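User: I'm putting together notes for a lab meeting next week and I want to include a structural view of one of the chains we've been expressing. I don't have a solved structure, so I'd like a prediction I can at least talk through. The sequence is below, exactly as it appears in our construct file.
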Amino acid sequence: MRKILFGVLVTLVILFTFKYCGDQQNEKVTLKENSALIQESLKNVGKLVVTEGHFSQVFNYNNSKDLFSNLISAEKKALVVVNADVTIAYDLSKIEYKIDEKTKTLTILSIPKEEIKISPDFEYYDIQADFLNPFEAKDYNAIKETVNKQLLKKIEASELKSNAKNRLISELSKFYILTNSLGWTLKYNENPINNLEALKDFKL
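Assistant: Thanks for the context. Below is the predicted structure for the 204-residue chain, given as structure tokens.
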């Protein structure tokens, strides 16, 4: 009778041992599968063009040059009409992140700064220049530089950048939904993201 009981106990111990090892192995496999899924999702995100805008502006360009000890003033001027397409994009393939399988945590370390691309089209009207002060390449370069500075100010004052950030947050929310569905935690700069509203507080 004792031998039978001993045999039963040994059998139960062996079964429980195999079950425990099997559960541990399943847990490791699940973690690796989840980790691979998260990594694949991050890799599949390329450059995200978040918003586009169009600006039109008219500039009056004036340049005067004093000659012969300020005895003569040579002037040149032009009317410049600018139509510019503006694109704001985030290259999310440059996101820096860390995956911790032990704590089931995806930490976003840094998000790349937005890329602002301005594609202006210049039309010049009523160009007037003195023989002693002709239009040169440096004048056109000066006009382009001034226009770009003015357009950047317009972009800052417009809703383009805030709209771009909203689109970015919408894209990042996919990571929260994915990690949350897998039982993982999403962090940004070591701060846990517990809900979608917290994403709006991202400081880029």
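A couple of points you could mention at the meeting. The chain has three helices and seven strands. Confidence is low (pLDDT under 50) at residues 3-31.

User: Perfect, that's what I needed.
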